[in-house]
């Protein structure tokens, strides 16, 4: 067996010492660099009483699993046509929906994509459908289902010499 500090062959039994928190088997010459470890001593811990907490494990779900529908690409025009066909101004529509008129303006100008709650209010108030069902067939590449990869997002530059 070799000394874990100097590397010389140990004749007889090695001496077990602790050097900066690490337990090493060393020769008699290197034993001076650590504290001898004769017995195992448990670390005393003060135990504070704690309340029992019952943890219920819920299955982890991906946020994208809930998404079945995608918002229409021309959602702003659909909203504007439906609002104008009912003879409503932006302020009238906002008051019916209990939302701010600036929010409706930004949605109609395509500055904002409506959140689900606002989208549902728009759909019920204007009696329109702003989402379309996305099937897995739409996401197929050349014969296989393909997700987004790093190569789709990153620009890879080769290192020049």
TrEMBL record:
It holds the Pfam family HTH_3. Coiled coil: none annotated. CDD domains: HTH_XRE. PANTHER family: ENDOTHELIAL DIFFERENTIATION-RELATED FACTOR 1, ENDOTHELIAL DIFFERENTIATION-RELATED FACTOR 1 MULTIPROTEIN BRIDGING FACTOR 1. It comes from Candidatus Methanoperedens nitratireducens. The keyword DNA-binding applies. SUPFAM superfamilies: lambda repressor-like DNA-binding domains (SSF47413). Residues 79-133 form the HTH cro/C1-type domain. This is Zinc finger protein. Keywords: DNA-binding. The keyword DNA-binding applies. GO terms for molecular function: DNA binding. The lineage of its organism: Archaea, Methanobacteriati, Methanobacteriota, Stenosarchaea group, Methanomicrobia. SMART domains: HTH_XRE.
């Amino acid at each position: 067996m070799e000394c874990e500090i100097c590397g010389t062959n140990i004749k007889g039994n090695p001496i077990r010492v602790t050097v900066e928190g690490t337990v090493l088997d060393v020769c008699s010459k290197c034993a001076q660099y650590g504290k001898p470890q004769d017995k195992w001593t448990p670390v005393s811990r003060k135990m504070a009483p704690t309340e029992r907490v019952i943890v219920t494990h819920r299955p982890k779900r991906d946020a994208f699993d809930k998404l079945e529908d995608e918002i229409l690409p021309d959602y702003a025009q659909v909203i504007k046509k439906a609002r104008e066909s009912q003879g409503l101004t932006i302020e009238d529509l906002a008051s019916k929906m209990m939302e701010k008129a600036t929010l409706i303006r930004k949605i109609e100008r395509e500055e904002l994509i409506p959140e689900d709650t606002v989208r549902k209010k728009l759909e019920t108030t204007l009696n329109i459908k702003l989402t379309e069902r996305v099937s897995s067939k739409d996401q197929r590449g050349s014969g296989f289902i393909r997700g987004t990869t790093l190569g789709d997002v990153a620009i890879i530059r080769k290192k020049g010499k």
